[in-house]
Amino acid sequence: MKFAREAFEFIDSLDRLSTIDAVMNATQRVLGRFGFEHFSFSGVPRSSAAMPEVVLAHRIPAELLKLYVERRYADVDPAMRMLRRTTEPFRWLDVPYHRERERKGAEVMALVADFGLSQGFFVPTRSPNGTYANVWMAGPAPELTARTRPGLHLMALYAFDRVHRLVGRSPDARAALTAREREVLAWTACGKSAWEIGEILGIGKRTVDEHAQTAVQKLGAANKIQAVVFAIRDGLIEI
């Protein structure tokens, strides 16, 4: 519960921050409490030619970014491929690749390890215009557990959205959600499962899932968690 409260307090504070540096400093402080020393908010480039323009903001070693761009690693990075295939957060160490067949991909993984950042965590997202994006965070020994992952996921998505808006890429107009869709998202924000929400609202799990999916579509979100972020951002639900 303490971590959940901390996550919601962080989210609530972001709308009062008016500069990218302020958001980055706040994000660095909260992630640092869980062992993450470096992080970035970035698009997923179609090719290395788009690097580093797709990086909205970052707190990663300058030399690492320099080498990543110069060596055109975005074209061969297994993590970039993974980010196009899932909306679920994943660890850097869990990214699948073939060490022998993907020599350049293995180079990327080795480079990150050389900087002591192999204990990384990716949160895939979508920018408001629908392109692939992500939040990446890493540290030597982060506290990445079943307890902390949901809160880190939510905080990362909200911080990305705040940075994205401050960069000047405004989201679309607010979507019109039904009262039931707002209820489902509000209970989702509290960490309730679809079955639990159904029990609370007196409806079936399948109906809860349908309301959640409709809200996802209306908000232009990639998944239910991002829909919660957008709904909080637009004042459609309260936490």
Structure description:
The protein is α+β, with helices and mostly antiparallel strands and 239 residues long. It is built from ten helices and five strands, in the order ααββααβαββααααα. It has helices at 2-14, 20-32, 62-70, 78-83, 103-114, 149-167, 179-189, 194-201, 205-219, 224-233, and strands at 38-43, 55-59, 90-91, 120-126, 132-138. The chain has a five-stranded antiparallel beta sheet with strand order 2-1-5-4-3, with helices on one face. Strand 4 and strand 5 form a beta hairpin. Helix 6 (149-167) crosses helix 10 (224-233), helix 7 crosses helix 9 (205-219) and helix 9 (205-219) packs across helix 10. The chain is globular, with a radius of gyration of 18 Å. 37% of the residues are buried.
Low-confidence stretches: none
Beta percentage is 5-15%
Amino- and carboxy-terminal Cα gap: 14 Å
General shape: globular
Helix content: 40-55%
Radius of gyration: 18 Å
Overall mean confidence score, pLDDT: 87
Order of helices and strands: HHEEHHEHEEHHHHH
Q: What's the number of extended β-strand segments? A: 5
* Largest beta-sheet details: 5 strands, antiparallel
Identify the strand order in the major beta sheet.
2-1-5-4-3
- Structural class, from helix and strand content? alpha+beta
Tally of individual helices: 10
